[in-house]
Amino acid sequence: MQSETKVKLPYRDPNDPRVIYRDSDRAKRIALKIKPSDREVSVTVPGIRALPKAMKFVQQQKEWIEVQLEALPPPQPFYPGAPILFEGEIFTLIHPSTRGRPAVDREARQIIVPAPEGTFAGRVKRLLIREARAKLEASSHHYARSLAMEVEKISVRDTSSRWGSCITRQGKGHISYSWRLISAPPFVLDYVAAHECAHMIEANHSKAYWAVVAQIFPDYKRAKKWLNKNGAFLHAVGAEF
User: Which of 20, 124, 198, 201 is most buried (CB neighbours < 10 A)?
Assistant: First the structure.
């Protein structure tokens, strides 16, 4: 390894490009985390001086890392003719020769994306983000109204650690979601929206909080179970081989 004075974090392991070392001011110890959407291993390092120790730790955990990566569902990259998970069903990506706006044909279970050469994957992702935003905005406002609350801002991002997060400012919610929720069945997407809206009442996961969730989304246990069991399949959407 290069000397620590020449290495900067984040640092991709030259011996295994799947491993990336990242610095964290809040970290007190070395930690490994599998990132399913990128097929990578993120290693939290408490400062550059801990990098040699972190690399040694990764070597000790190599077998565990291989098992975790091999256990991930097959990736679903965006290319013409490929199957991808959308709203809990398998759709086929279509690249027509005609021009026009990308669209979803739910009856035929097709996602139709006209795109110049080299732009297909990017346009597919933008379409999925657009669809996710529309569904999540509608769902969030619905559940917020049921709590007599208001969502002021909704963000849809490419997150790998959380399906959603909520911050309440001056009584109004600022909610961020993962666009990959559009690949989940609609009742799961609705559950996550209800989950985050409930945080405007209870900013924790106490019994009182889950009572709020049950009030606005009674079937939350089924949705929560689905997400815990199948979340890796959502991260497979758009992942490369």
Answer: 198
